[in-house]
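Anyone able to model this chain together with flavin-adenine dinucleotide?
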Amino acid sequence: MKSQQDHPKHYSFEFYPPKGPKGNEALAEARLQLAQLGPDFFSVTFGAGGTTRSGTLDTVVDTMRATGISAAPHLSCIEGTRESIKEMVDSYRDAGVDRIVALRGDIPEGGEKLGVFSYASELVAFIRKEYGDRFHLEVGCYPEVHPETPDPQADLDNFVRKVDAGADSAMTQYFYNADAYFDFVDRATARGVNIPIVPGIMPFPAWPQIERFSAMCGADIPRWIATRMAAYHAKDDQQSVRDFGIELVTNLCTRLLDAGAPGLHFYALNRADPTAAIWRNLGLPANNAAKQAV
Ligand code: FAD
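re: yes, here you go
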């Protein structure tokens, strides 16, 4: 973890583009509460859950306006031509965006290739070629291995390709096994990677939804955790689901930060709780950005 300890810590919260008036209201409320904590940036997902492309741009612009904090659009390249992707990146540049999360996106059912790029490394190389250093480029990585690539070595090779293509930093898929992150960082460091690898943190927003989602994206929920969550859920004890989740994720974050992780990226899912509770438990400053600036 030595290579990671030298990076300054960055904290971020991820949203998805809301749908309908209720969704807009919920995001506006969560955003104001989380902005009080002074994250370094927000990020906004792309295409996930059937949301539209313009939804990402609109949410990024609204978030920057409402909070004065920078926001990074996620951009997936599974669909589209060079021209359509460039058009989108142009619109982000024109909106004052300075950071992009460059991804491939999930292959739709049927598995046919839809766009000009097959992998995120190609998108990173394309943005670098067209825009130079205009954007800070984030990429995704998978301490527990991407579900399509059962060979950890091949998955690491892919991560190295994204770094070589010009990624500035990485955010991980979420995990509940800190050792998987430490092992991944050590293996990446041994391959010469020294960009920040920020752990992605998924608080337990609800059970069993998070169990189903984790099965799809390849995040392991240790049996002792799943068993306890299922028992609380069976008794309809939502308070214990929340409290146990907060305790677990606080302990995970403490371990990661103590070992030198260069910050945390919270999958906040358009709600302030339980992310804000975990933040407070960690003793992170109420206005992190302001304190760092002093
Ligand atoms: P890639 O890095 O391209 O990897 C995809 C797969 O291809 C991996 O299995 C990799 O090992 C393999 N691979 C890569 N290059 C090669 C090669 N040259 N030869 C052979 N195999 C190769 N999804 C969304 O739809 N919207 C979002 O907003 C979104 N946000 C995310 C944010 C984060 C932080 C993370 C970690 C994931 C996010 N995802 C999102 C999910 C992501 O799109 C999926 O996990 C997707 O399946 C892989 O994206 P990637 O950018 O990691 O792909």
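DSSP finds twelve helices and ten strands in the chain.
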